Amino acid sequence: MAKRRRETIPLGVLYSLTGPYGLVGREMLNGLTLAVDQINASSEFDFQFAPLVFDPGGDLQNYQEHCESLIRDKGVRHIVGCYTSASRKQVLPLIERYDRLLWHSARYEGFENSDNVIYVGAAPNQHIVPLARHMIETLGNSVYCVGANYLWTWETHRVLQEIVTAAGGQIIAKRLVALWDIEIDHIVREIVERRPPIIFNTLVGEASYRFYRSLHRALSGEPSRPPVLSCSLCEPELRLIGPRASVGHITSSVYFASIDTPENRSFVRRYREMFGSGNLPSVDAEASYLCGLLLARAIRRAGSTDVHSVRTAVWRDELQAPQGMVKVDPENNHCYLTPRLARSRAGFSFEILDAAAAPVKPDPYLTWLDLDDLAQRAQGQPARRTEPGRDLRVVK
């Protein structure tokens, strides 16, 4: 009997593979490619994906034009893509106007909820808040902020300032550079002069890598250095920073390649088989991988690519992912994810310091953020009971 022909479903892909954050875009494409390869090779699906990859090069106008082309010329219903919040905001009006579904893989600053977006990256209560809590409890409550001058930084700094102020601390300075700007030596000079106790970094791409290298050189030989905290530093970026300058930085993320579970060991192995034995997947690769799998499983469950049907289907799914259990919250289209904290170490990898005991319900608007509780923690007082799963526990 002749084998049934599988339907081919066009899948829009909108990642900047070139430009100031091209490395992250390529990581995201890698993760999605791994998912598509797995889906297309599996007999569990009676369809296969045909990715249509567009590279906006970090240019916002290109994002809009490519998105419109994918929708109007290519007829796609589902688009996986966008790293920066600026790019997501650029395409969102088109996604909503044509009633398509954007599968957004990047962690972001929150304060958004669209019926036409499945937010697979971390919400602010899953990465910004855990990092701020760790900072005020163990490091201090006065921090110097440096970042790219766009939405992600503005909102992240605002949330951090609310938490720090409630804990009796202060934002020592906020120094921003344009998203494309890689001139950061003046900021490093000010840090050397002012000697802040903690640095929070939201720079993007090459500017961030230069910042870490320049700060390492400037403080070489110093007996102590301020810790640099981030919500975005990941494994492939450590290699670009360099073997010495990349060590000792604290990152908040829902995924690290060093997670020791069967699912993640398999994921890392398959990633290395496809993209090289010297490469480790990042949180960005894992998130885009999840976008592909969640979409495919929803289409299978719905029996259609119809946006309403797929969205309803994904709400009923639970996926045992490399990071742990992941599911989409029907209240806000964001995912339950597991917050973690880690410190970068030699070998371009991370040592996990803390992890939530269970996946955390997404809170994109920080409705449950208890500033009084954080202030008590900063003063060493017993914390009030919070929603189950929100606290981090130390990983032995």
Detailed description of the structure:
The chain is an alpha/beta fold and 396 residues long. It folds into two domains: 7-122 and 260-336, 3-Layer(aba) Sandwich (Rossmann fold), CATH 3.40.50; 125-258 and 339-394, Response regulator (Rossmann fold, 3-Layer(aba) Sandwich), CATH 3.40.50. Helices cover 40% and strands 20% of the residues. It has twelve helices and 16 strands. The strands form three sheets. The chain has an eight-stranded mixed β-sheet with strand order 7-6-8-9-10-14-15-16, covered by helices on one side. Strand 11 and strand 12 (324-328) form a beta hairpin. The longest helix is centred in the last third of the chain and has 20 residues, at 283-302.
Topology:
Blueprint: E1 7-14, H1 22-40, E2 47-54, H2 60-73, E3 78-81, H3 85-97, E4 101-104, E5 117-119, H4 124-138, E6 142-148, H5 151-166, E7 170-177, H6 185-194, E8 199-202, H7 206-218, E9 228-230, H8 235-241, E10 250-253, H9 262-275, H10 283-302, H11 307-315, E11 319-321, E12 324-328, E13 335-336, E14 340-345, E15 349-356, H12 371-378, E16 392-394
Helix pairs in contact: 1-10, 2-3, 4-5, 5-12, 6-7, 7-8, 10-11
What is the correct CATH architecture of the largest domain?
3-Layer(aba) Sandwich
Amount of beta strand: 15-25%
CATH superfamily of the largest domain: Response regulator
Largest sheet: 8 strands, mixed
Q: Write down the secondary-structure element order.
A: EHEHEHEEHEHEHEHEHEHHHEEEEEHE
Strand order of the largest sheet: 7-6-8-9-10-14-15-16
Radius of gyration: 21 Å
Rough shape? Answer: globular
Which regions have little confidence, pLDDT < 50, spanning 5+ residues?
Answer: 385-396
The domain tally reads 2
Tally of extended strands?
A: 16
CATH class of the largest domain: Alpha Beta
Helix content: 25-40%
Mean pLDDT: 92
The CATH topology assignment of the largest domain is Rossmann fold
- Helical/strand content category: alpha/beta
The helix count comes to 12
Distance between the termini: 56 Å
